[in-house]
């Protein structure tokens, strides 16, 4: 199997070798947080293969740094808000999910969420202003002679720029709210009877009430996004282009959608020829650890280590929570490496070390690693799947709760509730995934599914990016569904026509029968008369 994979990778590399000799010129849309962490390895692979990569970077960003020494070119643009504005937005966002939400009813949650989506779009449009309304940047982009725009559409506007530059567009994303973008703009089929909506916390096995909930969940998000997102974006696009423009239609221009999930993690579902499922795009084999860290890891003996992080965006939690977590961790026999930026908790055990930053992937790939405590972001989950490490989830927001449900469903994880968690709950959860063999076995099974494919997800993503450049787009993969109205798509016009034909037929039949009956009655009457 290993040989087969190598051979197919070699064949692929050979196929592409002629192309990489005169590499393409790729423009990359700005993004943030884990989205940037995720796309970077793909860009590095593209550079390795001889392409030029230029990344648009806003002057204010938490993760993208235009002055960072790297192998990409950076095109820096100015934005009108400050780092503080941005931090306030993120604080607001996390505060809602981590502390406010549990005290709200559904309506309050919905309204507050609408407000957050609106605020997020406000910031996104200020970013977009920095590119599309800057003559300097637009001139640079036009003179850049790019062959392709690669974008994580979490920040909108890349489709507009791709059209202005007249170049193909490749999206990479994990999901959109209620899968609205994939379903409506990408035309990805998602029957609500067996494809659970992102963030619905459902699996693909649904009973009647769950299917009802899933259906409503899709509909609710469609309404929410129409009211808060699409109408604002439509206006913005129309203003820039000078003609009435549908932003969703612009989004549908994307040649390829690289979805960052795969069947080790997601439930089987129908998809289209221009949707590629490349979950685990950023995963790599583990590298050796820094010396002092390796020493600490080795000091764990047979008990091994537990790796703990709450993700790239959560920096601190309340002192109370930190103390609960620390005292839970102090009660397990493993050594713990905890990535945490807040103040050192009072209850921190001797077995736990706090780090500003940890080489998460290298730790997860370490033979001494027994479990991974995670907030349930897809990046971390995929690294754990890649290395076959069972997980304990403390999910907080966005897709995290549902990601953990996926892993739970496959028997590779348990999760604890962040709000109600006690020290003992965390301790017991870690002990469960380490001591009950099934968790490790299931994690290893997912790992072998993950690795057993003809080509690695990163190579697949790179292949389709190069494919799109070589063929100047991939419009031949575009389904005609994009050109249909909703009633044509569901064949309602055809059904209506057939219904009309059937009704007409029945009508005629009734008429003819009525006529026959009357006619034969009359004849019978006549014969009777004659007989008389
Ligand atoms: C961004 O702002 C700085 C300082 O005001 C200015 O020097 C620079 O030219 C601006 N960059 C662009 C691309 O407009
Ligand atoms: C459907 O499944 C949910 C979750 O398992 C359960 O709570 C609910 O009672 C079920 N409903 C019906 C009608 O079986
Ligand atoms: C996190 O830290 C910031 C600044 O140090 C503080 O303002 C904020 O309240 C803290 N958040 C929590 C949840 O403790």
Automatic annotation (TrEMBL):
<dbReference type="InterPro" id="IPR035595">
    <property type="entry name" value="UDP_glycos_trans_CS"/>
</dbReference>
<dbReference type="GO" id="GO:0016020">
    <property type="term" value="C:membrane"/>
</dbReference>
<dbReference type="InterPro" id="IPR002213">
    <property type="entry name" value="UDP_glucos_trans"/>
</dbReference>
<keyword id="KW-0812">Transmembrane</keyword>
<feature type="signal peptide">
    <location>
        <begin position="1"/>
        <end position="23"/>
    </location>
</feature>
<protein>
    <recommendedName>
        <fullName>UDP-glucuronosyltransferase</fullName>
        <ecNumber>2.4.1.17</ecNumber>
    </recommendedName>
</protein>
<keyword id="KW-0732">Signal</keyword>
<keyword id="KW-0808">Transferase</keyword>
<comment type="similarity">
    <text>Belongs to the UDP-glycosyltransferase family.</text>
</comment>
<feature type="transmembrane region" description="Helical">
    <location>
        <begin position="494"/>
        <end position="520"/>
    </location>
</feature>
<keyword id="KW-0328">Glycosyltransferase</keyword>
<keyword id="KW-1133">Transmembrane helix</keyword>
<dbReference type="InterPro" id="IPR050271">
    <property type="entry name" value="UDP-glycosyltransferase"/>
</dbReference>
<dbReference type="Pfam" id="PF00201">
    <property type="entry name" value="UDPGT"/>
</dbReference>
<dbReference type="GO" id="GO:0015020">
    <property type="term" value="F:glucuronosyltransferase activity"/>
</dbReference>
<keyword id="KW-0472">Membrane</keyword>
């Amino acid at each position: 199997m290993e040989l087969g994979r190598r051979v197919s990778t070699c064949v692929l590399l050979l196929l592409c070798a002629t192309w990489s000799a005169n590499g393409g010129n790729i423009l990359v849309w700005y993004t943030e947080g884990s989205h940037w962490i995720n796309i970077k390895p793909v860009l590095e692979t593209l550079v390795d293969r001889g392409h030029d990569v230029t990344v648009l970077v806003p002057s204010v960003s938490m993760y993208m740094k235009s002055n960072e020494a790297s192998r990409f070119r950076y095109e820096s643009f100015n934005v009108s808000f400050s780092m503080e504005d941005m931090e306030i937005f993120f604080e607001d966002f996390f505060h809602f999910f981590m502390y406010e939400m549990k005290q709200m009813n559904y309506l309050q949650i919905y309204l507050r969420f609408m407000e957050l989506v609106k605020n997020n779009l406000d910031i996104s449009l200020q970013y977009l202003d920095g590119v599309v309304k800057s003559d300097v940047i637009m001139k640079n982009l036009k003179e850049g002679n790019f062959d392709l725009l690669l974008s994580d559409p979490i920040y909108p506007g890349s489709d507009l720029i791709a059209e202005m530059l007249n170049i193909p567009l490749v999206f990479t994303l994990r999901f959109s709210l209620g899968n609205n973008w994939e379903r409506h703009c990408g035309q990805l089929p998602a029957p609500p009877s067996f494809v659970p909506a992102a963030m619905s916390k459902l699996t693909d096995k649904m009973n009647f009430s769950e299917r009802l909930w899933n259906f409503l969940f899709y509909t609710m998000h469609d309404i929410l996004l129409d009211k808060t997102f699409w109408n604002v974006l439509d206006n913005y696009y129309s203003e820039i282009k000078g003609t009435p423009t549908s932003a969703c239609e612009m989004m549908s221009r994307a040649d390829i959608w690289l979805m960052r999930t795969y069947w080790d993690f997601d439930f089987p579902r129908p998809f289209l020829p221009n949707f590629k499922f490349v979950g685990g795009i950023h995963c790599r084999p583990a590298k050796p650890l820094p010396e002092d860290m390796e020493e600490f890891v080795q000091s764990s003996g047979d008990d091994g280590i537990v790796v703990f992080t709450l993700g790239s965006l959560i920096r601190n939690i309340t002192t109370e929570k930190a103390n609960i977590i620390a005292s839970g961790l102090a009660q397990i026999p493993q050594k713990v490496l905890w990535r945490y930026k807040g103040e050192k908790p009072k209850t921190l055990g001797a077995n736990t070390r706090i780090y500003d930053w940890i080489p998460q992937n290298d730790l997860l790939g370490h033979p001494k690693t027994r479990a991974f405590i995670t907030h349930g972001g897809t990046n971390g989950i995929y690294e754990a799947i890649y290395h076959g490490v069972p997980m304990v989830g403390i999910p907080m927001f966005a897709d995290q709760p549902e990601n953990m449900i996926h892993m739970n469903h496959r028997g590779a994880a348990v999760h604890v509730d962040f709000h109600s968690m006690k020290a003992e709950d965390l301790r017991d959860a870690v002990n469960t995934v380490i001591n009950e063999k099934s968790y490790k076995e299931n994690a290893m099974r997912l790992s072998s599914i993950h690795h057993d494919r003809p080509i690695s997800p990163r190579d697949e993503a790179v292949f389709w990016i190069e494919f799109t450049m070589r063929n100047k787009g991939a419009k031949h993969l575009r389904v005609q569904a994009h050109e249909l109205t909703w009633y044509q798509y569901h064949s309602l016009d055809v059904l209506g026509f057939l219904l009309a034909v059937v009704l007409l037929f029945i009508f005629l039949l009734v008429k003819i029968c009525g006529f026959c009956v009357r006619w034969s009655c009359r004849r019978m009457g006549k014969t009777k008369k004659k007989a008389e």
